[in-house]
Write a structure and sequence with these properties.
By secondary structure, the chain is an alpha+beta fold. The protein is built from eight helices and 16 strands. The strands form three sheets. Strands 1, 2, 3, 4, 5, 6 and 7 form a seven-stranded mixed β-sheet that branches. Strands 11, 12, 13, 14, 15 and 16 form a six-stranded mixed β-sheet that branches. A three-stranded antiparallel β-sheet has the order 8-9-10, with no helix packed on it. The protein is globular.
């Protein structure tokens, strides 16, 4: 069975925010919201998100009030409007210029011990919706901090649209946040699926689905077939869409597919993979017994594998 429906939402999806794009260019509304006591801020520090309960295995996002965030904004980093959460304005602010931003936050605003944590390590444990908000903030702040200068003429850029656009002070070019499409696919042939061990997994025995970025002038189906052929030499026929997952690490969206393997012989590209193999469902159900590991539970790669396994 090639077309396998998604069993449940992927991590980083299901945002509770109304992005309220119509408010981004309302300068008076934005100015008022920045100081509104009801406004919340999701701070980002060196690509990490503010949380509590991480050590106890019960992480929660910490969104601070506008008054508490004012000190973080004084650190000079960019900020942006994310949207409305049950009617309350939500912004993000990057405080990476501070060596340690925690002392800038009053204790009473954080509700206990807090710290900045890599979202990828705890996304699967966060309450519904929180991972999506933190991912949104992380991705937007990554774009803002790395697009201070115009790619057209090299002059400095100034933020517009509440942090969702950058306008060149020289040539006037407008720049908007980038999201790079990447295909990720589980190739299936009979009762086996194809997984690869990447050079990016040097200290683990993890095998995962194949993936790659979409090239200019290429359809998603063509990208799936090309990437599989380049990395493993396996020919792919039918391609069926499964689901997507925002992946702001730093700026991608993963487009997930199940794909039909037309050939079996594997010839890996040593620049891309250390190994690739066909695995049965029984092997996938007990990977440690067979000397390998599966992708993390918050990844769309794991969802593609598990949903295929459940079709048997």
């Amino acid at each position: 069975m090639l077309s396998v429906p998604a069993s449940r939402p992927n991590a980083y999806t299901g945002s509770p925010l109304d992005r309220a794009a119509q408010l981004r260019d309302d300068a008076d509304w934005i100015a008022g919201a920045l100081h509104d006591p009801e406004t919340l801020f999701a701070p980002v520090w060196r690509s990490r998100s503010l949380m509590k309960g991480v050590a106890e295995g019960r992480p929660e996002a910490v969104l601070v009030t506008a008054a508490a965030a004012e000190r973080l904004r004084m650190a000079g980093g960019p900020w942006a409007f994310l949207g409305l959460w049950q009617g309350r304005p939500v912004f993000t602010v990057d405080c990476s210029a501070a060596e340690d931003p925690i002392p800038l936050l009053p204790d009473e605003t954080t509700g206990g011990p807090v710290g900045f944590t890599d979202l990828r390590q705890v996304a699967g444990l966060l309450p519904p919706g929180e991972a999506s908000v933190l991912a949104h903030a992380r991705g937007l702040m990554h774009w803002r901090t790395r697009h201070r200068f115009c790619g057209n003429c090299g002059q400095g850029c100034e933020p517009r649209s509440a942090g969702h656009a950058m306008v060149c002070s020289g040539c006037g070019a407008q720049h908007f946040p980038r999201t790079d499409p990447a295909v990720i696919m589980l190739v299936v042939r009979g009762d086996r699926c194809l997984l690869g061990h990447s050079h990016r997994f040097p200290n683990t025995a993890m095998y995962s689905t194949l993936a790659g970025f979409v090239e200019p002038g290429e359809s998603l189906e063509e990208a799936v077939r090309r990437e599989v052929k380049e990395e493993t030499g396996v020919e792919v026929g039918r391609v069926a869409y499964h689901s997507s997952q925002p992946w702001p690490f730093p700026s991608s969206i993963m487009l997930g597919f199940h794909a039909e393997g037309l050939s079996e012989a594997i010839t890996i590209d040593p620049e891309e993979l250390k190994d690739a193999r066909w695995f049965t469902r029984d092997q996938l159900r007990d990977p440690s017994a067979h000397g390998f590991g599966l992708p993390r539970v918050d990844s769309i790669a794991r969802r593609l594998i598990e949903d295929w396994m459940d079709t048997a």
